[in-house]
Design brief:
This protein is of the alpha+beta class. It has 7 helices and 15 strands. The radius of gyration is 18 Å and the shape is globular. It binds D-MYO-inositol-1-phosphate (IPD) and calcium ion (2 copies).
């Protein structure tokens, strides 16, 4: 890999360390103690263990950096200059069901701008990394988005609605609008990997409402550095960490946006 900022080295080391216990936990899935966090949203002891290892590793190097994580929340709130954004397991439902489609996702921000990110699927041994201005990599190979131009031929991915969503009908009608034009749509259950898969050309586009920033922070830079385009729609100014995302290979972006925004369902 040709990325070597101190932050990316730190994140990849933390990921490798945390993944050792994650792989063990995945092998013993049925013994994991699972507790309910809310409707359709589970959290396992593996989530918390993984997050602790990641935080400990990152804090060893920079005890003063801010951290935003899914499980613990905000650490060192006053540091707005340097911040890690962590989702210890993205794709928890897959993880809990023994499906190897989940990942650790970590991004690093400086003054509110994402500088680098890593998404690591430890079971497939696939590590996606990007640094601002230096491109995106899958393990040691440079990656780029697909070159597909016709949205009718595209393979898209989406997710949601969550069990507790208040806008299920809206999400389903958007899905209907898109699927009338694009026959191939998948739902893979890990927003981070959905973004990474667009970055390496496996998918041509991805959209989803009601995400959290930690689901996609690393994916944003990995996709942009791979030549993709990322857009947010209907941002709620009162909830900056809640995101509705549209992320594509660039070529099909406007067409996908139009399909999502289409008001009438014929
Ligand atoms: C979830 C995954 C899933 C998406 C959900 C997220 P989690 O994250 O990214 O693909 O549809 O909205 O909450 O709970 O597995 O970390
Ligand atoms: Ca997540
Ligand atoms: Ca998670």
């Amino acid at each position: 890999m040709r990325l070597n900022s101190p932050q990316i080295n730190l994140i990849t080391r933390a990921c490798m360390k945390a993944s050792r216990s994650l792989i063990r936990d995945f092998g013993e899935i049925e013994n994991l103690q699972v507790s309910t966090k809310g409707p359709g949203d589970f959290v396992s002891s593996a989530d918390k263990r993984t997050e602790k290892i990641l935080i400990d590793e990152l804090q060893k190097a920079h005890p003063d950096y801010g951290i935003l994580t899914e499980e613990t929340g905000i650490i060192n709130k006053s540091n707005t200059k340097n911040r890690w954004i962590i989702d210890p397991i993205d794709g928890t439902m897959n993880f809990l069901n023994g499906i190897p489609q989940f990942a650790i996702s970590i991004a690093y921000e400086e003054n509110g701008e994402i500088k680098c990110g890593v998404i690591f699927n430890p079971i497939m041994n696939e590590m996606y990394c990007a640094e601002k201005g230096n491109g995106s990599y899958l393990n040691n190979s440079r990656i780029r988005v697909s070159n597909k131009k016709n949205i009718n031929d595209a393979l898209l991915v989406t997710g949601g609605p969550k069990g507790a969503s208040q806008i299920k009908d809206k999400i389903f009608s958007e899905y209907i609008n898109v699927s009338k034009n694009v026959p191939n749509i998948r739902k893979f259950g890990s927003a981070a990997l959905d973004m990474a898969y667009v970055a390496c050309g496996r998918f041509d586009g991805y959209w989803q409402r009601e995400l959290n920033y930690w689901d996609i922070a690393a994916g944003i830079i990995i996709l942009k550095e791979a030549g993709g385009f990322v857009d947010f729609f209907e941002q709620d100014a009162d909830s900056p960490l809640k995101k509705n995302i549209l992320a594509t290979n660039s070529n099909i972006h406007e067409e996908l946006k139009e399909l999502i925004n289409k008001k009438d369902i014929e």
